[in-house]
DNA sequence: TAATTATCTACTAAATTTGTAGAGTTTATA
DNA sequence: TATAAACTCTACAAATTTAGTAGATAATTA
């Protein structure tokens, strides 16, 4: 039931981009340095997110990435699905990669897994990056710190 | 966020043992055949469950495994933890394998992951194998089938 | 004693995760 | 229009985890 590094990095990168929304394109190098994510790895991740329609990119000098939509229209669930695929613990209760199992009707494990999938997506599909930004600002106030890391 | 084969097999095996509770020891071979689980793999799994205090075993002729407690005192969460360790998506919100992360106080991802961990354990730590047995019986009635498979 | 059944350690193979390398393409701007 | 800066793309590689196997050992029953 682990969150992959890929998704972890993706969430952090998008929080970073959300905190800098509407300030123009931001380079991979900057995100990588600030969030301490291996740059080459991050390249792959951001590419996937662009192809998923979550980010826009500009090539060339002064290029970089920015959100394709405002932070309140991007959910954590969307990002995690883009990178790791289905959130459901088993495919027979997955929306995006459904595969029937042998004894579906009588399978009682399936019922529980469906409950779990719903519990997880209730959180992830409701939570937007606008929410995440509010939380970052809240906790920064409390801490009276101005170090911007969204590290896990 | 996947359920491992190990946990899947373990759940099925314990449902099988729960359905046969108080009928004496049951051999690995029987469970393996009925639930279509590779026997050698199942041996390892049941051994772990015994060491975790979930099963008792008897060696020798007419030996086998049985539940160490009644099915209503064993939860799915306990079984999954015994085999796969922590249920939490990241260690910094795990009860059984907690490790602090670098920026814990300001980490906003942590907050969400904590919500998810709680949502998952709410399901898994409440659900007992007595509940699972009721569900099996319910769905068997509905299906008017007498094939006993708890397959996923 | 013989057959049966769990125990235990170690190993292997496959899949997945976590990266890295390097050549190519596009663009701003001097 | 040259050049440096940035993303794009494909492929590879190392590390870790998952899934499964092998085979010898120990305990028990009849």
UniProtKB/TrEMBL annotation, chains A, B:
One of its GO terms (molecular function) is DNA binding. Keywords: DNA-binding. InterPro entries: TR_Rrf2-type_CS (IPR030489), Tscrpt_reg_Rrf2 (IPR000944), WH-like_DNA-bd_sf (IPR036388), WH_DNA-bd_sf (IPR036390). One of its GO terms (cellular component) is cytosol. NCBIfam families: rrf2_super. PANTHER family: HTH-TYPE TRANSCRIPTIONAL REGULATOR ISCR, WINGED HELIX-TURN-HELIX TRANSCRIPTIONAL REGULATOR, RRF2 FAMILY. This is Transcriptional regulator. It comes from Candidatus Brocadia sapporoensis.
